[in-house]
Amino acid sequence: MTKIKYKIYYGHHATSKNIATKIIETNHFEKSTNDIINNDYILDKNVKYHWLGNGIYFWDDDIDIAKLWGKQKFGNKYAVLLVPLKVERDRVFDLRKEINRKAAITLMEKIIEKCNNFEELDIMLKNRAIGFACELMQNKANNYDLYYNDFQVSSKNQISFPIKLTPQICVTNDSIIQYNEIEVVYEKGDE
Q: Which residues pair with 92 in a beta bridge?
């Protein structure tokens, strides 16, 4: 039996209409970067961070959450791109897998004293700590091109489901992005 070497994800990326056009024309995404410079800042809610470390962010096959985020961030002038990501299976760090979750928590507990009681942290601080651990792994080993997790977020608008999951992908190596296959799948605002 032949083992499949690659996995393909279809990520949705919301951005301004101008930046969407620029991404398609230049075959280039700007990476999101963290302000966190050491573990003293990990629990400071005023410091900018990204849930899976530095990289290019996508929602896994979820155009609705991309639209919602685009509207919140860019008002009535935004676009959503559908972006194919082709990555070697062994270059994916999927935090939905228990072995990877345990590795990330162990790393956090070793380097971040305040995370010794990781399970007792609120959702947003857990998400921040996970991002810091992913960033450290990337900086030290560079073993992964894509990080994946279903993050829990508080949902004030939902009564029956106060917690919801948002499937996040962070690409650290943009060579896995299939630039020639990117599509604009939604546009809002002036043409």
A: 146
Strands (E), 44-157: 56-60, 78-88, 92-94, 146-154
For 93-102, the pLDDT digits (tens) are 998 999 988 8
Q: Residue 190 pLDDT > 60, yes or no?
A: no
Residue among 88, 31, 68 at smallest CA distance from 164: 68
The CA-based angle 49-98-173, given to 5 degrees, is 45
Phi, psi of 131 (to 5 degrees): -60, -40
| 3-class state of residue 50 by DSSP | coil
Helices 123-141 and 98-111, packing angle to 10 deg: 90
Token duo for residue 49: 């961070």
Contact 36, 134 (CB under 8 A): no
Q: How many whole angstroms separate alpha carbon 34 and alpha carbon 115?
A: 19
- Rounded to whole angstroms, what are the CA distances from 82 to 57, 61, 87, 114? 12, 8, 16, 38
Which one, of 162, 186, 189, 11, lies nearest residue 92 by Cα?
A: 11
User: Of residues 110 and 184, which shows the higher confidence score?
Assistant: 184
What is the model's pTM?
Answer: 0.82
